[in-house]
Amino acid sequence: MKFGRSWLPAHIFAWLYMVLLVVPLYYLLVSAFKTNDQIFGSPFSLPTSFSTTNFTESFSSAHLGPAILNSMLVTALALVLTLVLAIPAAFAIARTEGRLGALVERVFSLGFLVPTFAALFPTFLLAAATGLFHTRAFMVLFLPATAMPLSVVILVQFMRTIPREMEEAARMDGASTFAVLRHVYTPMCMPGIATILLLNFLTFWNEYLYSLVIIGPDPDLRTVQVALPTLKSLTGTDYGILTAGTVLTLVPVWVVYTVLQKRMQQALVSGAVKM
Amino acid sequence: MTMLSSAPGGASVRGPVTPPPSASVTKRRTQGGVILAVPALVWYLVFMVGPLVAIFVIAALHWPGMLQPVSFAGTGNISTVLDDPVFWDAVQNTAVQLVVAVPLMIVGAYMLGYYVAQKPPGHRVLRYLLFIPGLISTPAKAMVFYAVLSPDGLLNGALDKVGLGSLTDAWLASPSTALASLILLDVWSGIGFTAVLFAARLGSVPDEIGEAAQLDGAGHWRAMWRIHFPVIRDFVGVVTMLQFLWTLFGSAQNVLLLTQGGPGSSSTTLSFLVYQKAFIAADLGYSQTVGVVLFLVGLAGLLTIRRVFRQNY
Questions:
Q1: What residues of B are in contact with residue A239 (Cβ under 8 Å)?
Q2: What is the pLDDT of residue B3?
Q3: Mind listing the pLDDT tens digit for each residue in A189-223?
Q4: Which InterPro entries does this UniProt record tie to the protein (chain A) (predicted)?
Q5: How far off is chain A from B72, nearest CA to CA, in Å?
Q6: B-interface mutation test, from A19, A33, A121, most B Cβ less than 10 A away
Q7: Quick one: pLDDT at residue B312?
């Protein structure tokens, strides 16, 4: 494709949007190293020093340390549980022909219609009824359920591409259903597993409203997304500390993105396509 | 929801390739079959379908507070909700939000995605940056915008710098700009991420299609809307549905973090009203009645969008 003169408006608009995108992020990053006076006085200038006081301050005043650990714990356990539930389910659907398999698959894809947000209050009641209100355990149990429709649908599509001869050969060698799942299907759909891991990592790590209501504001239990907004009121409005805290919560996701850039984009794209 | 589950594959994942079943194989493959799907199914029914059903049940209850006695309200909540001017403000705000944000996002993102997909100079940088808002959590985005839009934030600072100091405003605290600021945040973060989705899908459209159009003398504007757009039409439909749902259901978080629905009810959206009535006003029947409304609006929107974007050639 040639980029002649007629493309000029397109170049301009695309890069203009890029500026709109980057300026707030730049502001976020440089403000994290400044004091309030410097932020108001010269919002665009580079920081004069790379002192980390804002970071340590936000870390201690919002108790971000335990919050980051809580987020990691909830995210990791929920991810494991998601795989434990979704892999066998996808396996069963992919290899079951006929009406029952199709029905189960349909039930899962109807899950895209459930507005998880509107169900916040009933979910809160469920947490209270099971005695798991104000615990991280409930989130570990709950998050995989929300991830189930998309994870199952993506994994089913990967598993359907595995030739059935693979299973027949394994069966011939006397493999049980579980052995077929463990030694044939799981290794062969690693790309699909990576996709749902990345996709769900982002959703679980970034989850806010449910964590706010279910886990609650206890500094020892809350996740980093719940802890972050408290910086707004805790520090009055010290934008330096607020932005430093925000940067801290973005680091894990940003590191994963930069390392696995292509993979992550593919994961999110296929996630959206399957929805 | 056939369309939702059978949408065409993106750049990385192709659609399902199901070989035709043969009778003998079918029998063997069913062995040990669907039982493995039971745990996942149970999980999903308990944590997602159960609460969904509960929305409808609670909507029919008079439940004025967490520890208050519960009684059957019949259609009482519906008339309370319909008589409440705040509800109608929320309907209006949500309508404005959907009508402004979704088309702006889809058209902007499609054009940007098309641009990136043509691999112009610097497209790798573009792709990397465009994706970043998709990674940032709602609270983090809200904190960035809180810093940008606050009275002594970036935007007012910039306006002062360029001599437009008279235009400065307390953007999030003024009734005329609070909702607009929330919409701006949605569009700002939505366009880039959605553009990456479009770029990925357009990347899998065969090059020959674009080349043939060029030979026929189509300009790039024509190629973009008349050639490529129809090819990925159903994908546009899927993305529109997603953005519609995210905007409809997801706005509660931004509202809660940035304006709390205020000033007055100028930025109260339907999904925030569900939250506010349940967890702040403790009027649970009211809250879940709005939840039902939200569900129905979502469903109606999905069906409409699906019809509009149906392949029709």
A1: 147, 150, 153
A2: 35
A3: 888 898 889 889 989 999 999 999 999 888 889 99
A4: MetI-like, MetI-like_sf
A5: 17
A6: A121
A7: 60
Å from A173 to nearest chain B CA?
A: 15
- Residue A21 neighbours by CB under 8 Å, 6+ apart: B129, B130, B132, B133, B188, B192
Q: Does the pLDDT of residue B31 top 70, yes or no?
A: no
Chain B residues with beta carbon closer than 8 angstroms to that of A107 = 41, 44
Sign of torsion over alpha carbons A172, A173, A174, A176: negative
The pLDDT value recorded for residue A275 is: 59
Give the C-alpha distances (Å, rounded to integers) separating B26 from A80, A108, B29, B121.
31, 22, 5, 52
Average pLDDT over residues B123-146: 89
Beta bridge partner(s), residue B71:
B62
Q: Does the pLDDT at position B15 exceed 60?
A: no
- Other C-beta atoms within 10 Å of B246: how many? 17
ipTM rounded to 2 decimals = 0.87
B306–A contact, CB cutoff 8 A:
no
CB contact under 8 A, B134 and A115: no
Q: Measured between alpha carbons, how far is residue B229 from residues A9, B102, B116, B237 in Å?
A: 19, 17, 15, 11
- Among the partner residues A86, A119, A167, nearest to B52 by beta-carbon distance: A119
pLDDT given at position A91: 92
| Amino acid symbol at B124 | R
CB contact under 8 A, B146 and A242: yes
| Residue B1 contacts A, CB cutoff 8 Å | yes
A177 contacts B242? CB cut-off 8 A:
no
pLDDT at B87 > cutoff 50: yes
The yes-or-no verdict on residue B7 having pLDDT over 60 is: no
- Whether chain A has a CB inside 8 Å of the CB on B281: the answer is no
Angle between helices A190-206 and A64-95 (to 10 degrees): 140
Q: State whether residue B264 is helix, strand or coil.
A: coil
State how far residue A12 is from chain B, nearest Cα, in angstroms: 11
Nearest Cα residue in chain B from A214: B279
Rounded average pLDDT over A154-166 = 87
Lowest-confidence pick of A43-47, B9-13, B164-168? B9-13
First to last CA, chain A: 32
Q: Show the CA angle centred on residue B55, arms to residues B74 and B178, nearest 5°.
A: 105
Residue B312 contacts residue B254 (beta carbons within 8 Å): no
Residue A6 has pLDDT above 70, yes or no: yes
